Amino acid sequence: MWVEVVLGAAVLFLLWQVLKKPSDLPPGRWGLPLVGYVPLPFKSLEDHLRDLYKKHGSIYIWRMGVHIMVFLHDQKMAREAFTSTDFIDRPPWQIFCLGEKSPKGVVGSNGLLWQNNRRFALRQLRDLGMGKSKLVAAVHTQAAMMVEEIKKQAGRPARLPHAMSVAVVNIVWQMVGNIQFKVTDPKFVEFRECVELLMDSMKNLAIFDLLPWLGKILPRPILNRICHLDLVENAKEKFFAYFKEVIAEHKKTLDRDNPRDLIDAYLTEMEKENPDSTCSERDLCFLIFDLFNAGSLTTRDTTVWMIFYLANYPRVQEKLQRELDEVLPRGTLPNLEDKPRLPYTEAVVHELLRITSLAALGAQHVATRDTEIGGYTIPKGSIISNVISEIHRDTRHWDNPDDFLPERWITAEGKFSAKKAGFMPFGVGKRQCVGEGLARMEVFMFTVALFQAFTFTPPPGKQMDLRPDTGNAIGHNPRLKQEVVAMVRP
Ligand code: HEM
User: Fold this and answer.
1) Least C-beta-crowded within 10 Å: which of 74, 125, 144, 388?
2) Is the dihedral of CA 66, 71, 76, 79 positive or negative?
3) Does 52 map to a domain?
4) Closest listed residue to residue 392, CA positions, set 430, 347, 350, 432
5) Where on this chain does heme bind (predicted)?
6) Is 59 helix (H, G, I), strand (E, B) or coil?
7) With a 6 A CB cut-off, is 67 part of the ligand 1 pocket?
8) Is residue 334 part of a domain?
9) What is the pLDDT of residues 215-244, one digit of tens each?
10) Ligand 1 neighbourhood includes 105 CB (under 6 angstroms)
């Protein structure tokens, strides 16, 4: 009898030794092998993270499925981690690979292919984008189109129009393929449906990424039903078929000395003899997809947030309009050189990016080797996220962080000052957002155009609902289905 008890206790002790969290890891939730710590479903992911931060401080882990997830709430740690090559890679997740054996494009790729594509995309954005007349002109055109479409619903409560999506997609199309669609163009409707199908089906991929062993035990039809692997594959191929048509058109009229857009530049690059080249037509399709995926709805949602916030904060809206009226003749959109004359507008844009934290948890990185953050061991393969939304509310950097206060960006001399340590809406470090400059330009121009033309208010007797939509666990999207009133300014 005693022998069995001792043996049983020894087995339990050994099991506990094997299953317990190694002591050199950051504190946090460990749970069971294969499934990790399964959270209570009635709380949002962000509320869970807030609880963990209160309990453990600026760095903690949460084993989700088979992965050790490391969360950083401290801007210094986030900067240190994401400027280090130890955390430069994306995890080999379906959400980044979209069914490819080795991910392509720029958002999900790693190594030489990522380096080449990132450099290429940044160069294109610089050459075709920032400050260049063609893209500024496209942003002006799209801003004017947006204003015209909103005028059609002026004076009554209504949802913001579909034209806002058309505008941002058109700006990416201008840069990528020298194309712009009309709001009613059936090709555009088809394209938008394709984007929506892919975005919708991608949500369930996270289940597969956290529990990859499901692939070994479930028959394919059931796996597809749960994780939507087949839907993503179909949507992706539909998307790519469309890109291939546009690429084929470009090939017919390619002038290597006068690239019109990113596709021309990539095709020219592809023809060069370069032993380090990673170019391929499939990679180009991925790159285009990444720019749409990362660069269209993000700027639309930021502009929607701007309208909803300023509708609830009439004092800020009036002050912004006063500055616009003083500096720019009504109906004139600024060029980038006008920015220094619009410090309050700049401040409003920055404060909005801070308080809304669209990319609330950034994009995941993976540790490429056993390494350290904040004195803790981070094993190779751990997934790292910086909790941007909480860094943007950290009282070490922000007084009254829950207040929408553009004045915090204005110096005693009345100048705009962008330097704030705890500000990172576009991420930080080696994978910082490639489209930051373009996004800033779009949001700035759209803000000027919209608030020159309209005063926005909530519907009578209501306030705009400024809570993020619950449909996205890792980002802060506005609740698009609510109505707002646009009054044409006299
Ligand atoms: C308000 C709008 C935007 C926000 C808040 C935003 C935010 C971000 C964030 C947080 C990341 C992840 C950084 C990391 O991995 O640590 C990112 C990556 C990226 N963004 Fe943006 N972004 C915006 C607009 C755009 C636009 C307009 C484009 C391009 C047209 C773009 C292209 C990209 C790309 C390609 C990456 C991946 C970079 C890489 O992995 O090397 N983004 N963005």
Assistant:
1) 144
2) positive
3) yes
4) 350
5) 433
6) strand
7) no
8) yes
9) 999 999 999 999 999 999 998 898 899 999
10) no
